[in-house]
Amino acid sequence: MVGAALAGHFRDQGWQVQATTRRREQVDGAHPYLDLAVPNLDLPNLVLPGADMVILAAAVARIGDCEVDPATTQRINVTGTLAVANHMAGQGSHVMLLSSDKVFDGTLPLRDRYDNPSPACAYGRQKAAAEAGILALGDKGAILRLSKVLEPGLELLTGWARALALGKSITPFNDLYLAPVTVDLVARIAVHIADERAAGIYHCTGDEDRTYVELADILAASMGCDPALVQAISCEAAAMPAAARPRYTSLEMKVEQSRWGVAAPEFETTAKAILSRLADIKN
């Protein structure tokens, strides 16, 4: 989702973009083949285009998948990712890794970018290891940590909208939190990093953590639905692992605001920007 959005945004900004694919049937001049899951990835013999900027967006980001199959997901999220990073940096590319708030344990809000990683799940540990590899590239490496990225096509949101449109209830969690951002904001910061060949750690996050119930309430209101259709449930009661439900996901954005004038957006602003585009499903 994020990778496709970034490719389109960079093209709009005048960049020449090639986006890799692991699906053989989609390979063409603009989509070279690359599968990070291949063991012992032999990059010198792969035909990857030269690039001024490389954005590492491919990952297995589902926390449950990383817990169930840590070996395969480690190969994609760490081993393969860093193989590409090191190979491309060696060819003169600047490399940007898309990372996650899950490099922290979720016990504190607005985590500082220089706090030591404290992951509480396999996905977070994998992202922390990948971050370490990117930082080892020195001035050729950048990390962009993201909190929850929302866009109208997300299955959760479209499912909610369809149910509400039919007058059916939805059951969001009242103890699962997010500090959401849009893909447009992610792209905006990524372009700044690319334009400046900036190195180090950068953040893209909402200004505070709120519950999924509050997100669902905004959707119901935007669709003119009965608010009683939003029926909160507990993710703890649903036996969701603690590592998958951190209390806090927000990150501080002091550098982004002072350097590029990009502040963490308010929860309502992001939610309304996304959910208003789902309201026509009711019709």
Describe the protein in words.
By secondary structure, the protein is of the alpha/beta class. The protein has one domain: Rossmann fold, CATH 3.40.50.720. The protein has helices spanning 2-12, 63-68, 70-90, 122-135, 155-165, 183-196, 212-222, 254-260, 267-275; strands at 53-56, 94-100, 141-146, 149-150, 177-178, 181-182, 200-204, 210-211. It has a 4-stranded parallel β-sheet with strand order 1-2-3-7, sandwiched between helices. Strands 4-6 form a two-stranded parallel sheet. Strand 2 (94-100), helix 4 and strand 3 (141-146) form a beta-alpha-beta unit. Helix 1 crosses helix 6 (183-196) and helix 7 (212-222) crosses helix 9. The longest helix has 21 residues, at 70-90. It is globular, with a radius of gyration of 19 Å.
Task: Please render the helix and strand layout as text.
Blueprint: H1 2-12, E1 53-56, H2 63-68, H3 70-90, E2 94-100, H4 122-135, E3 141-146, E4 149-150, H5 155-165, E5 177-178, E6 181-182, H6 183-196, E7 200-204, E8 210-211, H7 212-222, H8 254-260, H9 267-275
Parallel strand pairs: 1-2, 2-3, 3-7, 4-6
Antiparallel strand pairs: 5-8
Helix pairs in contact: 1-6, 3-4, 7-9
